[in-house]
């Protein structure tokens, strides 16, 4: 399933790929034309030469997904964070945390961190609770103090009808609260919504003109114990 939206000079292609094994793969494609081309040598330090007195300004694309799960019967969903402690050794211990209060979290390549939404009342044939794992694909991280939503990568909030857009929620989306960082305000999580960032750093190149090739980014939502064996043997 896909759609395309023009935002500024860019076109973004939003794909949702549903695989036979239950994996859901949201994919975002960026194309269109460069948004910012600088024309003075003083600005050259921020980008890459793409023509006579023209520099494509480097920039970060930040895409935020709002994932509102409801596994199994209504209710009983919980959010968990998993990671592996230690470093280097051959046997590293798994740690899990139930995010029962609204939480902002960061990616960790060193600790192999991932998250899942679990239905605490529904089990597969092995007796394991059914869940979906959120498996990020780590990109370049961009922390900008004046854009507080960039200071973390994953947000778990309790469902609220006014929390719609990750940024400019009140001004552009008619919602309640400024952005996803403000949605994390101590509520108990009984109906989890996960917000996930996908970022990439774009250093323009000659090939980006006239029209850019599609640049793809993605992450995966894996069924974890949704079935007791491989559903596609
Ligand atoms: Cu770009």
What CATH calls the topology is Beta-galactosidase, Chain A, domain 5
**Number of extended strands:** 16
Fourth-level CATH superfamily = Copper amine oxidase, catalytic domain
Which parts are unreliable, with pLDDT below 50 for 5 consecutive residues or more?
Answer: none
Report helical residue fraction: under 10%
**Roughly what is the average pLDDT, rounded to an integer?**
96
Strand content: over 45%
Task: Compute the separation of the termini in Å.
Answer: 25 Å
Number of helices: 2
Overview of this protein structure:
- With 233 residues, the protein is mainly beta.
- It is built from 2 helices and 16 strands.
- The protein has a single domain, classed as Beta-galactosidase, Chain A, domain 5 (Distorted Sandwich).
- It has helices at 169-173, 180-183, and strands spanning 2-7, 10-18, 24-32, 37-38, 47-51, 54-57, 59-68, 77-84, 94-98, 103-105, 114-123, 129-135, 154-158, 192-202, 212-218, 220-224.
- The model has no long low-confidence stretch (mean pLDDT 96).
- Bound molecules: copper (II) ion.
What features would you highlight for this structure?
single chain; 233 residues; mainly beta; Beta-galactosidase, Chain A, domain 5; five-stranded antiparallel beta sheet; four-stranded antiparallel beta sheet; 16 strands; 4% helix; globular; binds copper (II) ion
Concise synopsis of the structure shown:
It contains two helices and 16 strands. It has helices at 169-173, 180-183; strands spanning 2-7, 10-18, 24-32, 37-38, 47-51, 54-57, 59-68, 77-84, 94-98, 103-105, 114-123, 129-135, 154-158, 192-202, 212-218, 220-224. The longest helix has 5 residues, at 169-173.
